[in-house]
Amino acid sequence: MINKDFNSILELINAFPNEQTCIDHLEALRWNGDVISPFDSTSKVYNCKDNKYKCKNTGKYFNVKTNTIFDNTKLPLQKWFLAIWIVTSHKKGISSLQLGRDLDITQKSAWFMLQRIRNCFGIDNDSQLDNEVEVDETYVGGKNKNRHANKKVKGSQGRSAKDKTPVVGMVERGGKVTARKVENVQSKTLTAEIIRNVKESATVYSDEWLGYKGISRIYDHSIVKHNQGQYVNGRIHTNTIEGFWSLLKRGIFGIYHFTSKKHLQMYVDEFVFRYNTRDNNESQRFNLLLSNTEHRLTYEGLING
């Protein structure tokens, strides 16, 4: 099943018609025939009935869903597989209302399911970018000009973060993108993010914002002067990362309509995942996400964490 291509939802349903076929696929992806205890990776494991295993060192029982997003779920795995397929194959995402209708579950269950899936999107976020890297920042939130007079926020124009949430992004040309929610776009904050995500050997392109001034001491840094109507100067431009911002905002404003500052990073990670797997087919993205499900998220942790 791992190497099988699923080109449609119908093919996915035919491949996983029941709970056992889903469990077998998860075990092949997670363990590949060598079962490892989630409680003690060095322990011997005993095979028990009903797809259960026992960790010898701790005496605890577990299955392939233990310590994953499927842990203690009341929904069948086939619905989880369908949800993951839909989320990873739809170019702009899917709302919890629509997913709830598609899977015949409540909107609340669909939203929690989507958030648990999004919590697994942070794949390869630790790898640094190199070569030619574009850096830019954007803002997610309501526009002051669209508010009623009594709801306008003073001093929120431009790069103010009073009523908007700044997100800084970096993309290696022909490679991957990374994006993080930040508290502000001051030089100290932006420099720290760039150092964390970009190798010193890289050539960095940005606009003329003063927040990028400090990186010139570390990187080969060139600037495109947007305030002078300049958008391309040879190889110096930020059009690639701005294209990613367009994808992110069309998804957020067109599909989700609103995202809170608290959960924004999860939505950003979702679009980063899609961009970084743009050369993969639907089956590869589906299996890649299933291979990265060991990120359990409880409802209490999601709401109050």
Characterization of the model:
The protein is α/β, with parallel strands linked by helices. It contains ten helices and eight strands. It has helices spanning 9-15, 19-30, 77-89, 96-103, 107-118, 187-197, 239-256, 264-276, 282-290, 299-304, and strands at 45-47, 53-55, 61-62, 132-140, 165-172, 177-181, 203-206, 220-223. The strands form two sheets. It has a five-stranded mixed sheet, sandwiched between helices. Strand 2 and strand 3 (61-62) form a beta hairpin. It is elongated and about 70 Å long. The mean pLDDT is 87.
Q: Average pLDDT value?
A: 87
> If helices are DSSP runs of H or I spanning 4 or more residues, what is the number of helices?
10
**How many strands?**
8
Report low-confidence residues grouped into runs of 5 or more. none
Helical residues, percent: 25-40%
